[in-house]
């Protein structure tokens, strides 16, 4: 009966109340008249859907009357005046089977928590748009929300934090045509089934600090304006999508000093999932304490931008499972706060920069499955990386904990040969000396008669002296 003029039917509530088997009732914009007390006992025991949108004479008494409808599943009161937070809170709590509620454009004032507090876990539709509600929206993450992001998403001009992570959101992120969400500071849409391109409206969100779009089905190129239009960005997570493009082309941010200096201007706390150090961890702390870039498991190509090395406050960098080429920048040693570095499963070449060994806070490193070559550094922090798995898949790498380099083996073999030769010469010189000395003495005695007689006399006198000394000692012992 929607849009039928029922302004003269003053007994409309009594009439519908006489139909206890009524299940669906649509009376939107029917100019229903005001209902005066007393109201009849509630008799709509089967009602499941009720639409009274546009009822300008709606009042708290009617709301209390309908709150007896325990079978009610969907209630539409859009454009109804006279609604307040307190009676709405009581009604929502009483309607135990309610899973859909529309209260848009009702000029409701008060704290939004008063309405949301009694919503059951079975709720799948809620519209509170175009009201005067205040307060904080509770987290909607880790639920089973299985819809698309609605178009009015673009009209939330004052929104600062939105967390819809780990749900079942699908479809494309709305393409807001004009600058919107300009006050947005934190956006978590990770762990859903969102598709389409990188959301273009984000180019206007110059207050954005945290952006997490990981674990979705986003495709296309990562735009270059990520570096230039988001000067306050501290946390960027795009892992496990289908994004591609030249990573080097993204880095166009020039004012790196601002990137560090402005960290202290933000002090609200928030939880962040970071895939680093070989596991996924939840960090709940002041945002200035955690800075991270996670672009893993995409189709990014090109060299690692040298400009990234200027992010001296970066703690976690994960570029694994892409198609990156070129060498690891030598200036990576500038990132003194780096704790976790994962460059595995790419096409990087060249030697491991010695500057990496100067990163005193680096506790996790993975360079496996690249085309790196040369000697693995062994000094400073690298002395703690003893797991061969972090280097596997790089046939040109050598030294601890991998097999020794071929040059080292050749050097050791040469040294062993030299030692063997020196020992041989030393033993040979001793033998030759003995032979020469012994036969030289014998030869002299044979050739010179006087020397031979003198030598034998010396031996006789020495033997006599030894005999006398032994005899004297034995005699003293007997006494």
UniProtKB/TrEMBL annotation:
Membrane topology: Single-pass type I membrane protein
Pfam families in the record: LRR_1 (PF00560), LRR_4 (PF12799)
Entry GO terms, CC: membrane
TM region positions: 425-447
Family from the record: Belongs to the RLP family.
Disulfide bond in keyword set: no
Gene Ontology molecular functions: kinase activity
Gene3D superfamilies, A to Z: Ribonuclease Inhibitor
Name of the featured protein: LRR receptor-like serine threonine-protein kinase
Organism: Musa troglodytarum (fe'i banana)
Cell compartment(s), UniProt: Membrane
Signal peptide (UniProt feature, chain positions): none
Keywords, alphabetical: Glycoprotein, Kinase, Leucine-rich repeat, Membrane, Receptor, Repeat, Signal, Transferase, Transmembrane, Transmembrane helix
């Amino acid at each position: 009966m929607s849009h039928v003029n029922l302004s003269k039917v003053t007994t409309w509530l009594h009439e519908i109340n006489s139909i206890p088997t009524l299940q669906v009732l649509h009376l939107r914009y029917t100019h229903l008249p005001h209902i005066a007390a007393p109201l009849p006992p509630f008799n709509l025991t089967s009602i499941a859907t009720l639409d009274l949108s546009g009822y300008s004479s709606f009042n708290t008494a009617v709301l209390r009357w309908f709150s007896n409808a325990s079978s009610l599943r969907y209630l539409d009161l859009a454009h109804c005046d006279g609604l307040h937070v307190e009676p709405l809170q009581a009604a929502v709590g009483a309607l135990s089977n309610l899973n859909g509620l529309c209260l848009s454009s009702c000029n409701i004032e008060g704290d939004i928590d008063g309405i949301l507090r009694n919503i059951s876990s079975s709720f799948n539709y809620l519209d509170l748009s175009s009201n005067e509600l205040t307060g904080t929206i509770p987290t909607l993450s880790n639920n089973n929300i299985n819809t698309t992001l609605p178009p009015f998403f673009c009209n939330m001009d004052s929104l600062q934090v939105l967390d819809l992570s780990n749900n079942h959101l699908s479809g494309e992120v709305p393409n807001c045509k004009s600058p919107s969400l300009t006050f947005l500071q934190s956006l978590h849409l990770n762990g859903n089934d969102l598709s389409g391109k990188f959301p273009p409206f984000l180019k206007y969100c110059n207050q954005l600090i945290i952006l997490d779009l990981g674990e979705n089905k986003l495709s296309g190129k990562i735009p270059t304006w990520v570096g230039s239009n988001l000067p306050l960005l501290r946390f960027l997570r795009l892992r496990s999508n289908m994004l591609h493009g030249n990573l080097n082309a993204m880095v166009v941010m020039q004012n790196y000093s601002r990137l560090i200096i402005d960290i202290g201007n933000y002090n609200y706390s928030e939880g962040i999932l970071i895939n680093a150090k070989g596991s996924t961890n939840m960090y709940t702390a002041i945002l200035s304490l955690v800075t991270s870039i996670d672009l893993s498991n995409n189709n990014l190509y090109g060299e690692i931008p040298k400009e990234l090395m200027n992010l001296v406050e970066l703690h976690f960098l994960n570029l694994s499972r892409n198609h990156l080429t070129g060498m690891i920048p030598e200036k990576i040693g500038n990132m003194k706060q780096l704790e976790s570095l994962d460059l595995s499963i790419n096409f990087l070449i060249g030697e491991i920069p010695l500057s990496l060994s100067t990163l005193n806070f680096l506790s996790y490193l993975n360079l496996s499955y690249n085309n790196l070559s040369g000697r693995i550094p062994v000094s400073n922090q690298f002395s703690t990386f003893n797991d061969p798995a972090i280097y596997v898949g790089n046939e040109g790498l050598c030294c601890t904990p991998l097999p020794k380099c071929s040059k080292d083996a050749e050097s050791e073999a040469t040294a062993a040969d030299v030692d063997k030769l020196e020992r041989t010469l030393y033993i040979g010189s001793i033998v030759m000396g003995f032979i020469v000395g012994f036969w030289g003495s014998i030869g002299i005695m044979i050739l010179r008669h006087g020397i031979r007689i003198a030598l034998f006399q010396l031996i006789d006198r020495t033997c006599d002296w030894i005999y006398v000394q032994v005899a004297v000692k034995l005699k003293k012992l007997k006494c």
